[in-house]
Design brief:
The complex is a heterotrimer of chains A (about 300), B (about 350) and C (about 500). Chain A is built from 12 helices and no strands. Chain A has helices spanning about 5-30, 35-55, 60-80, 85-110, 140, 145-165, 165-175, 180-185, 190-215, 225-235, 240-260, 270-295. In chain A, helix 1 (about 5-30) crosses helix 10 and helix 2 (about 35-55) crosses helix 10. Chain B has helices at about 1-35, 35-45, 50-75, 85-100, 110-135, 140-165, 195-210, 215-225, 225-230, 235-265, 275-285, 290-310, 320-330. Chain C folds into 2 domains: about 5-240, Rossmann fold (3-Layer(aba) Sandwich), CATH 3.40.50.300; about 260-340 and about 425-505, 3-Layer(aba) Sandwich (Rossmann fold), CATH 3.40.50. In chain C, the strands form 6 sheets. Chain C has a 6-stranded mixed sheet with strand order 6-9-10-3-11-12, sandwiched between helices. Chain C has a 6-stranded mixed sheet with strand order 18-21-22-15-23-24, with helices on both faces. In chain C, helix 14 (about 410-420) runs parallel beside helix 15 (about 440-455). The chains are: A mainly alpha (about 300), B mainly alpha (about 350), C alpha/beta (about 500). At the A-B interface, helix 3, helix 4, helix 9, helix 10 and helix 12 of A face helix 5, helix 6, helix 11 and helix 13 of B.
C-alpha cells in the first residue's frame, strides 16, 4: 500500500462524511439536532442517478441530486417549524420516507428492488489522471477526485465565513443560542432555522451526490449506511465548530480508509466496516469525558 | 368515569388522526398506480384474517414488534431517545443462537431458560452502553444507539457467515437450534408462536410497572425532569440506566423468542427493520406500553398485508415503508387552522 | 393637558392569550423627560404591556399614541425605529458574542453587502460606551461579564438607536445594592439628557428617589397614577393588591425561646474545578423552633449551600449534622428520611416535574407514608385522598390530582412543593427563595406556613435575596458574601443598613 493511495482513499471516504457533518453542524448552530441528514443524502443519491441516467447528463444529475435533498429539507422544515413536529421524530420520518420512497420507486418504476444500475452513466468531472503527478505525494492523491471533493474543501471555510463573518450567520447563531434574545433583536427565529435546514439540505445533497456519482454510478437502497449519523457524531464531537467538525469527520474517514487497507490482512470484512462507527462512539465518549473531568471539583 | 373516557378519547385522537391521514394519502398513491385500489387495500388490511395460517403469521410478525415497542416505552419514559431497538434485537437473537448451539448438549430444562437469559442479556448489554454513556458523560443517545445498530448488524453478520453458518443451507443462516428447546405453538393456531402470549402479558405488566408502582413513577420523574428527580431523593441516573437495561432486555427477548419460536436459527435478514418499526409503534402509542400492544398489532397487519397486496395486485410492498415514513413525519405534527403566532410567518 | 407634553399615551389597551385575559383595559400617559414607574404584582400585566410596546405582542384592542400620532408596532425593529428601547428582565444577550456584536444584533453594519463590518461595529460601540461613560470593552465576550455589566450592555443596546423612550423591566432584581446605586445614577443622567424612562418594578422603595410619577396596574387594569412624592408605599401596595396588606412576620412579637440545635454545619467547604472556593468553611447552627435567615445577593454561594445541605452537591471538607446525627455521607433520600424538608429556589428546575400530575409531584417523597404504597403498588384511591387533602390544606386553586402540575400558576405550583415537603413534618426545613415570582397573596400564605412550622418546634433555614423577607421571618440573620458567612446577627441587633454593608462584603462588625 502506498501513502498516495491511502491519502486518495481518505479524501474519498471523508468527503461525504465532512459534508454530512457540516450539514448537521449548520442546523446544530440553530439549535436543531438534525438526524434527517441521512435521509436527505439518500434522496440526493437516488435523484442524481435517476435523473443523470434519464438525461445522460452528469451536470443535470448533479443538480437533480441537490434539488432532491433540498426538497427533503423543505419537507423537514415545514413539518417541524410550521406544524410543530418534533425535530428528532420528524427527522426519523424523513429517513424512513426517503428509504421507503426510493425503494417504492425502485420496485414500481424500475422493477429492481435491489438497486438502480444504469448501463451507461455520464461521468462527473474528475481531476485528469497524470495531470498533477509533478507534485509529490499530494498530486497523485488528488488525481481522479471529483469536483465535489473540491467543493467540500471549499465548504469548510465557507461555513466558517458564513457563521462568523456575515450578519445572517450571526443571526442564525443568535437564534440557536438564545431565541428570546434573537427575537427581541428583531430576528425572525423561525426563518433562521428554516434557512439552516435548507443549507443542511444543500450540503447533504452534495454528500449524497458524491456518494452516488463519484465512482459507483449506481444507487443502492441502503447506500448511505449511517453516514449521516457519523456526520452528526462528528458535529457533536467538534462542538459545532467548522474546523473541529471537519477534522473529526476526516478522522472517521481515515478509519474507513484504514479499514479498506486492513482487508488485505485477513481481518474479517465486518470488523473492518465497523471501524468508523466504533471510532465515532469512542470519540464522542472521549470528548464528553474530557469535559466531565475538567468540571470536576479540584481536591483540597 | 366520564372524565376518564374523554381523556382516553383525547389521547387517541392524535394517533388515530395520523393513521387515517396516512392511510388516505396511501390510498391516493395506490389509486394512481393501480386499477384495483380497493382490492389492494382490502389485501393490505384484511388478508391477515383470511385463513388461520395467515393469522398465525400475523401473530408471529407482531411478537417482536410488541416486545421491542414495549421496551422502548421504558427508555422513552426515562428520557432516553433509544433508536437502538434493531441492534438490541440482533444482539439478543445472536446470543440465544450461539448459546443454544454451543451448549446443545444440556438438557432442555436447563438450556431453555439459559438460552432465553442469554438473549435478554445480549440485548441489555447493547441498551446499557448508551444508557451509561448518557447518564455518566452526557453523550447523545440518538447517535450512539444508531451506531450500535450498525455495529451489531456487522458483528452478527460476521458470526453467521464465518462462525456458526449452516454450510448445508442457502444464504447467511446459522445452524438450527436444538428442537428440544423450540417454543410450542399456541394451541388451536398452528404455526403461531406462543411467544406472542408472553409479549402480550409483558405489555400489560409493563403498564402496571410504569404507572402503578413507585419505581415506575421514579423512572418517569427521572425522564421528565432529572434535576427534580434528584432533589426528591431518587437515584435518577440509576433509574435511567435500569430503564435502558429493560429496553435492551425486551428487544433481546424479542430476538430470543424469534429464534426459539419462529426461525429456529439465526437468519441475517430476519428483521424487516423491526427496531425502527417498533419505534414507530411506540411513538404512535404515545409511549404507553398497553397501547403499544395495539399499535404493534396494527403494524404487523400492515407488514404482512403488504405481501398479500403485492401478490394480488401490482402494488409494491414497499408502499408500507413509504407509509411508515409519512406516518412518523406526521405523527407529532399539530395541524391547526390558525397560525400559532405572528412570529412563524414569512418562513416559507 | 395637551398631547404634546406626553411622549406616550395608551388608551384602553387589551390583550388576551387564549382564554386568559392578560390586559383588560390599560390607560397610561408618560410625559416627555420624566421617569415613570409602573407598579404591579406579578401577573398584573406589566410585562405584557411592555412587550406590546416593543412589538413582541400585538394588542387586541386600544390605541398607542406616540408623539401625538397613533402607531402600530408590529415587530421589535419597528419599535426601535420609533425610538422605543427596552431592557428586559431576562437579558436578551447572546453570551458567546462580543459586546459590539450584541449591540448590533439584528442590525449588523455590512461591508460589500454581505459581510459583517466588525471594525466599524467595534468603533461605533466604543463611541457609544464613551458617550455614556460606561466601563465596557466592546470586544469582550458577554459570557465573561458580570450581571451589572451585562445590564449596562442591555441599556446601551436600547440607547444605541436613539431611543426617545427607554423601558426597564424589573432592572434591580438581579443587581447587588452598589450596582443598583450605579443604575440609579445612570437613570438620573439619562433624565438630565432629556430621555424618558419607564421603570417597571414591584419594589417602589428602590426607585422612589429617581422617579417622578407612578402608575399602578392590577389584574390587567390601570388603577391609579400619582406623583411619587405624594404617595406612601402603603398606598401603592393597597392599590396593587386591592386591599390592605399584612406582609408582617415576627415584628413586634415577644421574645421566643428555642430548643437544641437540629441542623449543624461545621466547616462546610466546596471548591469549583478551577480550585476557587465556592463555600468557604461555613459554620452554622439552626435550633429547634428557630428561623435562621441567610441574607445575601444572589450568586454568593446560596445555591451551593442549599444543594450541599440537601445532599445534591458533594462537599470537599466539613460535616453536616441533622438532629445530632452526622448526615454528611447520606444520600438525598436518607437525609429526607432523617427529617429534612427541602424547598428548592427554582420550582420548575428542582422543585417539580411540570409534565407529571399534581398527585405524583406531591407524593414523590411521601409514598411510604399515608398508605399510598401497598405491597409495592400505588393505591390510587389513597394517592388521590392524600393529594386532595394537600390541595385543601394549602388552598391550591384550580388543582385536581390528575392534571399536570405545569398547568398551575407560579404561586399554586409553589404550594404543591410546600404541601409535599410539609407532609413529612420535617425537623429541619430548608427553604430557598420561597416567594420568588409569587404575588402578594401567595407570599402571605407562604410566610404564615414558614412561621407555623417554626412555631411547631421545627428548625427553618431560610435562604432569600429579598431583605424584607429575611427581616419579616428570621429570628437570627446570617449574611453570606462570596461563599463566606460574614456574621450572624440576632434579630434585634440587625438593621437593613448593617446587613446591607455585610452583603457587599463590608467589614465584619464587632458585636
Amino acid at each position: 500500500m502506498s501513502i498516495e493511495s491511502l491519502l486518495a482513499s481518505v479524501l474519498e471516504q471523508s468527503t461525504p462524511l465532512v459534508l454530512a457533518a457540516l450539514a448537521a453542524m449548520i442546523t446544530l448552530r440553530a439549535n436543531i439536532l438534525n438526524v434527517a441528514v441521512e435521509g436527505m443524502m439518500l434522496v440526493a443519491a437516488f435523484s442524481a442517478i435517476a435523473v443523470g441516467a434519464l438525461t445522460d447528463s452528469a451536470f443535470i444529475g448533479f443538480w437533480a441530486g441537490l434539488a432532491g435533498a433540498i426538497f427533503a429539507s423543505l419537507v423537514f422544515s415545514t413539518m417541524t417549524l410550521r406544524f410543530g413536529a418534533g425535530f428528532i421524530v420528524a427527522g426519523l420520518g424523513i429517513n424512513l420516507l426517503a428509504a421507503g420512497g426510493t425503494l417504492f420507486a425502485l420496485e414500481r418504476y424500475y422493477n429492481s428492488p435491489g438497486g438502480l444500475r444504469p448501463i451507461a452513466f455520464p461521468d462527473i468531472w474528475h481531476v485528469p489522471e497524470g495531470s498533477l503527478s509533478f507534485i509529490p505525494v499530494i498530486g497523485p492523491a488528488i488525481e481522479g477526485q471529483s469536483i465535489i471533493v473540491f467543493l467540500t474543501v471549499l465548504a469548510v471555510p465557507a461555513c466558517w465565513v458564513f457563521l462568523y463573518r456575515t450578519p445572517t450567520g450571526a443571526y442564525l447563531r443568535a437564534a440557536g443560542e438564545d431565541e428570546h434574545a434573537a427575537r427581541s433583536a428583531g430576528i425572525d427565529v423561525v426563518r433562521m432555522k428554516a434557512l439552516a435546514v435548507t443549507i443542511s439540505g444543500l450540503l447533504a445533497g452534495l454528500a449524497g451526490t458524491q456518494l452516488a456519482m463519484d465512482k459507483l454510478h449506481f444507487f443502492l437502497p441502503d447506500m448511505t449506511a449511517g453516514r449521516g449519523f457519523i456526520g452528526l457524531a462528528a458535529t457533536l464531537f467538534g462542538a459545532g465548530q467548522p474546523w473541529m467538525t471537519a477534522g473529526a469527520a476526516v478522522l472517521f474517514g481515515f478509519f474507513g480508509a484504514l479499514g479498506d487497507r486492513l482487508q488485505a490482512f485477513d481481518i474479517p470484512a465486518q470488523f473492518v466496516l465497523m471501524l468508523p462507527y466504533v471510532a465515532a462512539i469512542l470519540a464522542l465518549a472521549l470528548a464528553r469525558w474530557r469535559i466531565h473531568v475538567r468540571n470536576k471539583p479540584s481536591k483540597l | 368515569m366520564r372524565s376518564d373516557f374523554t381523556d382516553f378519547l383525547r389521547a387517541v385522537r392524535g394517533p388515530l388522526g395520523a393513521i387515517a391521514l396516512t392511510m388516505a394519502l396511501g390510498f391516493l398513491l395506490v389509486a394512481s398506480i393501480s386499477d384495483e385500489p380497493v382490492l389492494a387495500y382490502r389485501e393490505l388490511l384484511f388478508a391477515n384474517f383470511d385463513s388461520l395460517s395467515n393469522f398465525a403469521l400475523f401473530l408471529n410478525r407482531a411478537t417482536p414488534l410488541v416486545l421491542i415497542a414495549v421496551g422502548i416505552t421504558f427508555a422513552f419514559r426515562a428520557g432516553v431517545f433509544n433508536v437502538g431497538g434493531e441492534g438490541q434485537l440482533f444482539a439478543g437473537a445472536i446470543a440465544t443462537t450461539v448459546f443454544s448451539i454451543v451448549f446443545s448438549g444440556l438438557p432442555a430444562i436447563v438450556l431453555f431458560p439459559l438460552a432465553i437469559a442469554a438473549g435478554i442479556l445480549g440485548g441489555a448489554l447493547l441498551g446499557w452502553i448508551p444508557g451509561v454513556l448518557k447518564v455518566r458523560l452526557g453523550v447523545d443517545e440518538v447517535v450512539v444507539t444508531f451506531m450500535l445498530n450498525t455495529i451489531a448488524l456487522l458483528f452478527t453478520s460476521y458470526l453467521v457467515n464465518q462462525v456458526i453458518r449452516d454450510t448445508t443451507a442457502y444464504g447467511a443462516v446459522s445452524w438450527m437450534v436444538p428442537e428440544k428447546i423450540w417454543l410450542p405453538t399456541i394451541p388451536g393456531i398452528p404455526g403461531a408462536t406462543s411467544g406472542f402470549i408472553i409479549a402480550a402479558v409483558l405489555s400489560l405488566a409493563s403498564w402496571v410497572v410504569l404507572f402503578r408502582t413507585k419505581w415506575g413513577a421514579e423512572v418517569r420523574a427521572a425522564g421528565t425532569n432529572l434535576r427534580y428527580a434528584e432533589a426528591v431523593g431518587i437515584a435518577a441516573g440509576g433509574r435511567v440506566i435500569w430503564a435502558m437495561l429493560i429496553a435492551g432486555g425486551f428487544a433481546g427477548l424479542a430476538g430470543a423468542l424469534y429464534v426459539l419460536g419462529i426461525g429456529h436459527r439465526f437468519e441475517q435478514n430476519f428483521s424487516p427493520e423491526y427496531g425502527l418499526v417498533a419505534l414507530t409503534c411506540a411513538l404512535l402509542a404515545r409511549i404507553h406500553p398497553a397501547a403499544a400492544l395495539f399499535t404493534s398489532l396494527y403494524y404487523a397487519m400492515m407488514l404482512n398485508g403488504a405481501a398479500y397486496m403485492q401478490i394480488s395486485t401490482e402494488v409494491p410492498r414497499s408502499l408500507v415503508d413509504l407509509l411508515t415514513g409519512l406516518l412518523v413525519l406526521l405523527m407529532t405534527a399539530r395541524f391547526t387552522l390558525r397560525r400559532r403566532s405572528g412570529q412563524t410567518s414569512g418562513a416559507f | 393637558m395637551t398631547t404634546d407634553e406626553n411622549i406616550l399615551v395608551l388608551k384602553g389597551i387589551a390583550k388576551r392569550f387564549g382564554d386568559k385575559v392578560a390586559l383588560e383595559h390599560v390607560d397610561l400617559q408618560v410625559r416627555r423627560g420624566e421617569v415613570h414607574v409602573l407598579c404591579g404584582e406579578n401577573g398584573a400585566g406589566k410585562s405584557t404591556l411592555m412587550n406590546i410596546l416593543v412589538g413582541i405582542h400585538s394588542p387586541d384592542g386600544g390605541q398607542i399614541i406616540l408623539d401625538g400620532k397613533g402607531v402600530t408596532i408590529a415587530d421589535p425593529l419597528i419599535a426601535s425605529a420609533l425610538g422605543i428601547g427596552m431592557v428586559h428582565q431576562h437579558f436578551t444577550l447572546v453570551p458567546s458574542m462580543s459586546v459590539a456584536e450584541n449591540l448590533f444584533l439584528g442590525r449588523h453594519i455590512r461591508r460589500y453587502g454581505i459581510f459583517s463590518d466588525r471594525r466599524a461595529m467595534n468603533e461605533r460601540a466604543r463611541e457609544l460606551i464613551d458617550n455614556y461613560k460606561f466601563a465596557l470593552d466592546p470586544e469582550a465576550r458577554v459570557s465573561t461579564l458580570s450581571v451589572g455589566q451585562r445590564q449596562r450592555v442591555e441599556i446601551l443596546k436600547a440607547l444605541a438607536f436613539e431611543a426617545k423612550l427607554l423601558i426597564l423591566d424589573e432592572p434591580t432584581a438581579v443587581l447587588t445594592p452598589p450596582e443598583v446605586d450605579e443604575l440609579l445614577k445612570v437613570i438620573a443622567s439619562l433624565r438630565e439628557r432629556g430621555r424618558t424612562v419607564v421603570f417597571i418594578t414591584h419594589k417602589l422603595r428602590e426607585v422612589k428617589a429617581v422617579s417622578d410619577r407612578v402608575t399602578v396596574l392590577r389584574q390587567g387594569r390601570s388603577i391609579s397614577t400619582h406623583i411619587t412624592t405624594d404617595v406612601s408605599e402603603e398606598d401603592i401596595a393597597r392599590d396593587m393588591v386591592g386591599r390592605d396588606v399584612f406582609l408582617t412576620g415576627r415584628e413586634g412579637q415577644p421574645e421566643r425561646s428555642f430548643g437544641g440545635a437540629v441542623l449543624e454545619l461545621d466547616n462546610v467547604t466546596i471548591t469549583n474545578s478551577a480550585g476557587r472556593l465556592i463555600l468557604d468553611s461555613i459554620d452554622l447552627e439552626v435550633r429547634a423552633g428557630e428561623v435562621l435567615g441567610i441574607a445575601g445577593v444572589d450568586g454568593n454561594g446560596q445555591t451551593e449551600l442549599a444543594e450541599a445541605i440537601a445532599g445534591l452537591m458533594p462537599i470537599q471538607a466539613g460535616s453536616i449534622r441533622l438532629a445530632g446525627d452526622d448526615i454528611t455521607a447520606d444520600t438525598v433520600a436518607e437525609r429526607q428520611a432523617a427529617g429534612l424538608g427541602f424547598v428548592p429556589e427554582d420550582r420548575l428546575d428542582r422543585g417539580l416535574s411540570s409534565d407529571m400530575s399534581i398527585a405524583e409531584n406531591m407524593a414523590a417523597t411521601n409514598y411510604e407514608r399515608y398508605g399510598v404504597l401497598r405491597k409495592g403498588y400505588v393505591d390510587r384511591g389513597r394517592l388521590n385522598a392524600f393529594t386532595e387533602d394537600g390541595i385543601k390544606r394549602f388552598d391550591i386553586r384550580g388543582a385536581k390530582p390528575k392534571i399536570p402540575v405545569g398547568t398551575l400558576s407560579g404561586g399554586n405550583m409553589q404550594k404543591v412543593v410546600l404541601a409535599r415537603e410539609f407532609a413529612r413534618d420535617p425537623k429541619v426545613l430548608l427553604i430557598s427563595q420561597p416567594t420568588r415570582g409569587l404575588d402578594i397573596g401567595a407570599s402571605e400564605f407562604v410566610y404564615s406556613q414558614v412561621l407555623s412550622a417554626a412555631d411547631k418546634g421545627n428548625g427553618v433555614l431560610l435562604i432569600s435575596s429579598e431583605l424584607s423577607e429575611i427581616f419579616a421571618l428570621s429570628d437570627r440573620i446570617a449574611v453570606i458574601y462570596s461563599g463566606r458567612i460574614m456574621q450572624v446577627l440576632e434579630r434585634n441587633e440587625a438593621d437593613e443598613e448593617t446587613v446591607g454593608i455585610l452583603m457587599n462584603g463590608g467589614k465584619r462588625q464587632v458585636a
